[in-house]
Specification:
Layout: E1 27-30, H1 41-51, E2 55-58, H2 66-75, E3 81-84, E4 87-88, H3 94-107, E5 112-113, E6 116-117, H4 121-124
Parallel strand pairs: 1-2, 2-3, 3-5, 4-6
Length: 126
């Protein structure tokens, strides 16, 4: 069987633009991973990934730093997209956030989504 390589891409075979994750139809948002030791993350997230969840979102209000946690979570999964919901803009400058996001995209193409925000005033003021 041969394929026509000159045909225009269709919706099914169009390439994913760099940095645009496949989020799936249903995703999870959690703040509960903070209580899981790093050594337990691969088993937990590997199971969720195998169940077919399209994406996992987590915040940075307390606990783990968003980009380090994203690498831990991406490394523990094969298909699931990981998104920061949100990474606090006061925690790092824009250049560092951009560089970290590009690094994660290079390591895990199409699986990282960067969500940035101001967080919640009571948490930021601590």
């Amino acid at each position: 069987m041969t394929h026509d390589t000159t045909a225009a891409p269709s919706a099914e075979n169009a390439p994913t633009p760099a940095g645009r994750a496949h989020l799936g139809r249903v995703g999870l948002w959690t703040g509960s991973l903070e209580g899981v030791p790093p050594a337990g993350i691969p088993d937990l997230l590997g199971e969720l990934d195998e169940q077919g969840w399209g994406s996992l979102w987590f915040g940075e209000a307390v606990g783990r730093e968003a980009f380090t946690a994203s690498q831990l979570y991406l490394g523990a999964t094969r298909r699931m997209a990981i998104g920061t919901g949100i990474a606090n803009i006061y925690g790092r400058d824009a250049s560092a956030a951009g560089a970290a996001a590009r690094t994660l995209e290079a390591l895990h193409p199409g699986r990282f989504v960067l969500g940035l925000g101001v967080s919640h005033a009571p948490l930021v003021e601590r």
